Amino acid sequence: MSPSIPDRFIHFPWRDGELHAESVPLAWLAEEYGTPLYVYSETALRERYRAFDQAFGSQPHTVCYAVKANSNLSVLQALAQEGAGFDIVSVGELERVLAAGGDPSRVVFSGVAKRHDEIARALEAGIKSLNVESAAELARIAEVAQAHGVVAPVSVRVNPDVDAKTHPYISTGLKENKFGVDIATATQLYREAAAHPHLQPVGLDCHIGSQLTELTPFRDAVARVMALLDTLRQHDITLHHLDLGGGLGVQYRDEQPPAIADYVRTLVEAVSDPNMEIIIEPGRAIAANAGVLLTRVEYLKHNEDHHFAIVDAGMNDLIRPALYQAWQDIVPVQPHKTGTTAAWDIVGPVCETGDFLGKGRELTLQAQDLLAVMSAGAYGFTMASNYNTRPRAAEVMVKGEHARLIRPREDWPMLFGSEAACLR
Length: 424
Ligand SMILES: Cc1ncc(COP(=O)(O)O)c(C=O)c1O
Ligand SMILES: N[C@@H](CCCC[NH3+])C(=O)O
Known about the structure:
Layout: E1 14-15, E2 18-21, E3 24-25, H1 26-33, E4 37-41, H2 42-55, E5 61-66, H3 73-82, E6 85-88, H4 91-99, E7 107-109, H5 116-125, E8 129-132, H6 135-147, E9 152-157, H7 183-195, E10 199-205, H8 216-234, E11 241-243, H9 260-271, E12 277-280, H10 284-287, E13 291-303, E14 306-311, H11 320-324, E15 330-332, E16 340-347, E17 356-365, E18 370-373, E19 394-399, E20 402-407, H12 412-420
Parallel strand pairs: 4-19, 5-6, 5-12, 6-7, 7-8, 8-9, 9-10, 10-11, 11-12, 14-16
Antiparallel strand pairs: 1-2, 2-3, 4-13, 13-14, 13-18, 15-18, 16-17, 19-20
Helix pairs in contact: 2-3, 2-9, 5-6, 7-8, 8-9
């Protein structure tokens, strides 16, 4: 009998005793493309996007997918076909969106360190809004816009100083975080922007953190930005949109994040203005449970009372467990009854003690078993590196019974070819 699979993995079903991506056996994909391998479900990505989009009903809105969660061109293309907007944090992400057929007029640009060239390219492409994170940045945007003879659409990112109750590394809306400006500074920046011939204030922006599992911090943040909108109106500054950022959490283990529809309803009610365009920037909630990382057990090893399953994916492929002590489910793709049942530490090949994917997992394992690290569609491949001169994994997209390679595994020329050409 196949193990039961929770609802969130509905597009990674058990069939004939083995785990699939939609209708394609994961074991077949591993044979075909090798491991480690990222596998995404196109149906899952599209469904999650639609759930956000449809939840808004008649409220004007733009769902700007946060590209940093998973920036594969084919992922972006699928979402662009759905009509998504995009939240970017670099010119590289902008170029990806454009290459994937994304609409620049639905792109918002976040990030604390936008360079001159990045601002210039965003203005040239005609994006919807540059989300400004400091007074110095606003001045730079004005300068670049003036030099190019254009008017830059800007929103100020407000740091509402609310506790998002998430891991400290991914909380962004507290006053000790580097993001955004406080509410008093924001008022001043809007007044400067409104008076500048090359700046046009179009929206108000905030983002309080990632992997949020409660609605209260969102409500608190909206209340604070709504108060600021009122103040701005008194200064005759009327804004067209309210960008409430991303951050809706997903279930990795036993978290109980709000449903997408409840989250959106909460925002719409808190804004309470049927004419205001609401922008959201979800990344994880669209992509995380639309992907898995496949890895093969190279060796089993027993030290004292520790059992190690040494696999071919490491922290360079998936850094979340090492960086945030994040827990992601690890499932044998073709479970069997023979093998050693133990509490396994699933560790990678990288020369760091922090190189683990999971610890103390009760599993029955043999060498060469194939494992799926679940919920790996967001902040998996995009945070991968070449540490230990390891090539980054290939990525595959599955839709129904079809699978296609959407990024080949890095080969040695890709890894150091251009660098070798610099040798004397
Ligand atoms: C400005 C901004 N928008 C959107 C996101 C996406 O967050 P999440 O993937 O949690 O939805 C982030 C990441 O935290 C962010 O910094
Ligand atoms: N990379 C983080 C989320 C960062 C959100 C970006 N602001 C994670 O994997 O949980």
